[in-house]
């Protein structure tokens, strides 16, 4: 079972998060300040950390900087009420792997944690991605489903690559805009949906079994 | 925060010695005195060594001469030679005496100046030093019968002609001593004058400076206590203190304005959020009835409430961003970036959204346009313009354009063939939460253009809203919105 360390000074928020994560199959330990968080991190084995930025005493950024300087390289997701861009950049510079703004949706948190865990797994440089009968060659940039080649625009290629790398996970619209288009704003409208439906049309057309699914209230998921 | 001394403690007299200008004066005086003493000591040491060497040589030549006279011509000749007067011998005291102290001969200077007690002094000194050995110094002061004090200084040597017969030759060195005396007096007098005047000047400067500083301190104290309207008085003297006071006032102006903006933003947010919150509340209330009637509806009702909350949070985030931009006055993290590439991204992102709705999408992007700003905020603003255009256009098309206008400003415009906005309403639609009558049915809360305008202003640019291309089918005249940024460089 995946083990998550939650460092969050708001006790109620931390417990809600713990409950929510346990529903999603994550085992988590909660600490309420930076010092305790750092101690838990030094002592225990965690797969991923959810770290609040503003805490009394040792704040999230300082705690992370200390942990990173000690060679603790567990993936860290910053959780903060400070959502403006400069705050985000500052958090990532301190050594965080991702940044989520409060208030957040549980599905968004889970999606991002899964993405972080996935990132940790991939060690070797891949040249080909495979999901079911879908195959993507990262060198020649040829995408095939079964035997038929799929013609994709550059952005569609990136979108599919991201989905393939996160196969089986829900990815949210915000994640896609952030990771595929590299924009950090709230898309507000269905602009991402339209791109997904374009991709879906190319991907699933002529096949009985659809691969690209819409997960209600969450986002999208690529399934083999 | 500044650590400020308490004003009541800052009285001139009590703390003068701690104040900077006065301390600087004291330091100057100390350094000055030290250097003056050092220079004088050097001169004194160097020249008194010189005086000593010169007089010793002079005395020696006379002693040698008299010894020669004694050797060649005998005692009587020495005594006669010794008392001879010559203009060149004016500075010398010459005495021949016996071991018991009887004076056998002396020159005139010795007669007029060397009293018995001085002579005893010479003999005593000669005995200690030893005749023929080396020169020695005699210093003494006398008060003559008229009460006048006089000081004498001789540098001399004793020669033993034969046991019991001695010769003393001394040279008057009081002229040199006198010179030094005068020098010392001048130094002390001047020194005292410098110190007194320096202290006086220091006090004046100190007074002047502390008056200026005190004014600033008072202002800071008032600000510390929460009076942001306190300002330092300018004396229009054009000096550094005036410049400093001016700087302080400018800073306070800015702080006051920012605080005002923040307060306004806070009030506005509170006001803005009351509406959607009360809407959410009444919806939840109604939902409760629904669930009571049919409990199986619960998940659906909660899901709706969640979606509503998400919308509210999104609204809050947008209002927050707008307020923060307005309060800051300028967008953070501004850089030179490729505006053409950004426009291309926007085209790629929104083109299919328009096509999906059956609208024609045209993009005219001038290549290589560089703009200065925060890419993410500008992307958000452009996205809002495109989103609006697509949302409010039923037939026809959208044109995205990026170009330098005739004033070299960078203009990102979106033109649609929708219904447009009556001129009277155009100023209003950039206000927060303003939605026109015919748009109520469409999704949105009325923050899109407020955000665009806030972003434009935060880049020293503007949002211009004009009529579109004209009537299109049963629609028209359309709308042209443009985000205009100042020229680069």
From TrEMBL, chain A:
PROSITE patterns: OMPR_PHOB, RESPONSE_REGULATORY. The modification 4-aspartylphosphate is found at residue 52. SMART domains: REC, Trans_reg_C. Residues 126-224 form the OmpR/PhoB-type domain. Pfam families: Response_reg (PF00072), Trans_reg_C (PF00486). Residues 3-117 form the Response regulatory domain. The keyword Phosphoprotein applies. This is Response regulator transcription factor.
From TrEMBL, chain B:
PROSITE patterns: HAMP, HIS_KIN. Residues 207-260 form the HAMP domain. GO terms for molecular function: kinase activity. The keyword Methyltransferase does not apply. SUPFAM superfamilies: ATPase domain of HSP90 chaperone/DNA topoisomerase II/histidine kinase, Homodimeric domain of signal transducing histidine kinase. CDD domains: HisKA. InterPro entries: HAMP_dom, HATPase_C_sf, HATPase_dom, His_kinase_dom, HisK_dim/P_dom, HisK_dim/P_sf, Sig_transdc_His_kin-like_C, TCS_sensor_his_kinase. Gene3D superfamilies: 1.10.287.130, 6.10.340.10, Histidine kinase-like ATPase, C-terminal domain (3.30.565.10). Keywords: Kinase, Membrane, Phosphoprotein, Transferase, Transmembrane, Transmembrane helix, Two-component regulatory system. PANTHER family: HISTIDINE KINASE, SENSOR HISTIDINE KINASE YKOH. It is an enzyme of class 2 (transferase). The keyword Transmembrane helix applies. The chain crosses the membrane at residues 20-45, 186-205. Its EC number is 2.7.13.3. It comes from Asticcacaulis currens. The lineage of its organism: Bacteria, Pseudomonadati, Pseudomonadota, Alphaproteobacteria, Caulobacterales. Pfam families: HAMP (PF00672), HATPase_c (PF02518), HisKA (PF00512). Residues 268-489 form the Histidine kinase domain. This is histidine kinase. Signal peptide: none annotated. It catalyses: ATP + protein L-histidine = ADP + protein N-phospho-L-histidine. It comes from the Bacteria.
């Amino acid at each position: 079972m995946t083990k998550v360390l939650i460092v969050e000074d708001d006790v109620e928020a931390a417990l809600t998060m713990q409950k929510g994560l346990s529903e999603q199959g994550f085992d988590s330990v909660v600490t309420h300040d930076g010092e305790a968080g750092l101690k838990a991190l030094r002592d225990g084995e965690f797969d991923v950390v959810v770290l609040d930025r503003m805490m009394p005493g040792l704040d999230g950024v300082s705690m992370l900087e200390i942990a990173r300087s000690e060679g603790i390289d567990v993936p860290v997701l910053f959780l903060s009420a400070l959502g403006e861009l400069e705050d985000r950049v500052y958090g990532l510079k301190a050594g965080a792997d991702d940044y989520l703004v409060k208030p957040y949706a549980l599905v968004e948190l889970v999606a991002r944690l899964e993405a972080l865990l996935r990132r940790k797994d991939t060690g070797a440089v891949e040249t080909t991605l495979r999901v079911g009968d879908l195959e993507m060659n990262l060198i020649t940039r040829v995408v095939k489903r079964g035997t038929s080649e799929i013609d994709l625009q550059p952005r569609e290629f990136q979108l599919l690559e991201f989905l393939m790398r996160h196969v089986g996970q829900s990815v949210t619209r915000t994640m896609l805009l952030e990771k595929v288009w590299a924009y950090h704003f709230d898309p507000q409208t269905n602009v991402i949906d339209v791109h997904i439906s374009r991709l879906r049309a190319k991907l699933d057309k002529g096949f009985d079994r659809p691969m690209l699914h819409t997960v209600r209230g969450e986002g999208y998921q690529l399934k083999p | 925060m500044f650590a400020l001394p308490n004003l009541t403690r800052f009285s001139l007299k009590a703390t003068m010695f701690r104040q900077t200008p006065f301390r600087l004066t004291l330091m100057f005086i100390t350094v000055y005195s030290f250097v003056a003493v050092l220079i004088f000591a050097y001169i004194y040491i160097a020249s008194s060594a010189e005086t000593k060497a010169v007089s010793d040589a002079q005395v020696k030549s006379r002693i040698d001469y008299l010894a020669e006279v004694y050797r060649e011509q005998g005692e009587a000749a020495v005594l006669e030679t010794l008392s001879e007067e010559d203009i060149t011998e004016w500075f010398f005291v010459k005495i021949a005496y016996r071991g018991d102290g009887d004076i056998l001969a002396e020159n005139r200077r010795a007669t007029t100046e060397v009293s018995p007690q001085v002579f005893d002094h010479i003999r005593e000194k000669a005995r200690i030093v030893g005749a023929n050995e080396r020169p020695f110094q005699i210093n003494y002061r006398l008060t003559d019968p008229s009460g006048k004090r006089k000081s004498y200084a001789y540098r001399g040597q004793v020669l033993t002609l034969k046991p019991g017969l001695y010769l003393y030759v001394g040279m008057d060195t009081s002229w040199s001593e006198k010179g030094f005396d005068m020098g010392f007096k001048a130094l002390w007098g001047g020194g005292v004058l410098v110190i007194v005047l320096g202290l006086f000047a220091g006090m004046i400067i100190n007074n002047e400076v502390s008056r200026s500083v005190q004014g600033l301190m008072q202002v800071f104290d008032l600000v510390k206590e929460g009076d942001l309207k306190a300002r330092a008085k300018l004396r229009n003297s054009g000096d550094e203190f005036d410049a400093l006071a001016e700087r302080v006032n400018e800073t306070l102006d800015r702080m006051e304005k920012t605080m005002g903006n923040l307060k306004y933003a806070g009030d506005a947010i509170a006001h803005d959020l009351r509406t959607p919150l009360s809407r959410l509340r009444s919806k939840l209330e109604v939902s409760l009835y629904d669930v009571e009637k049919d409990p199986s509806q619960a998940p659906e009702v909660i899901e709706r409430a969640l979606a509503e909350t998400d919308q509210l949070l999104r609204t809050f985030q947008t209002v927050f961003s707008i307020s923060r931009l307005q309060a800051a006055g300028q967008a953070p993290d501004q850089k030179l970036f490729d505006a053409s590439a950004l426009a291309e991204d926007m085209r790629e992102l929104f083109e299919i959204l328009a096509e999906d709705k059956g609208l024609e999408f045209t993009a005219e992007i001038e290549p290589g346009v560089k703009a200065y700003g925060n890419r993410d905020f500008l992307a958000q603003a452009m996205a809002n313009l495109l989103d609006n255009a697509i949302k409010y256009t039923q037939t026809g098309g959208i044109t995205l354009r990026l170009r330098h206008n005739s004033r070299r400003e960078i203009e990102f415009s979106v033109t649609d063939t929708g219904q447009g906005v009556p001129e009277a309403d155009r100023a209003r639609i950039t206000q927060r939460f303003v939605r026109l009558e015919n748009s109520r049915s469409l999704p949105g809360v009325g923050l899109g253009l407020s955000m665009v305008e806030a972003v434009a202003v935060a880049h020293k640019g503007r949002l211009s809203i004009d009529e579109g291309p004209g009537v299109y089918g049963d629609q028209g005249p359309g709308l042209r919105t443009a985000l205009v940024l100042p020229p680069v460089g």
